[in-house]
Specification:
The protein is an alpha+beta fold and about 120 residues long. The protein is about 55% helix and about 20% strand. The strands form two sheets. It has a three-stranded antiparallel β-sheet. Strand 2 and strand 3 form a beta hairpin. Helix 1 crosses helix 2.
Length: about 120
Amino acid sequence: MTIELREPSFLVLAALADGPKHGYALLTEVADLSDGRITLKVGSLYAIVERVESAGLVEHVRDEVVNGRLRRYFALSDSGRERLAEEATRLEENASRARERLRRRPGTTIAGAVSR
């Protein structure tokens, strides 16, 4: 099943790219990856995790009890890695096209280059 990856879902997948994480670590990583623009609430995070898990992009890998609290760990599946890479490429291509169009506009400054 192919699902739309909005920015929070994309960032959850990106947070899992370097290995399995539990919920609190995912919340922290998403905030870090977005430079604080996106701060998910626990309920929102688990709704995203459930959605990407049902699409086969993420898998529940283990549970652990720490200080009497259950930690559920999630990992990116092979399909999730592929989808994350595809989405990153798509976003890079879109950003490149947008920068190119902005360069064509007279008087626009893009990353140190001014169009005349």
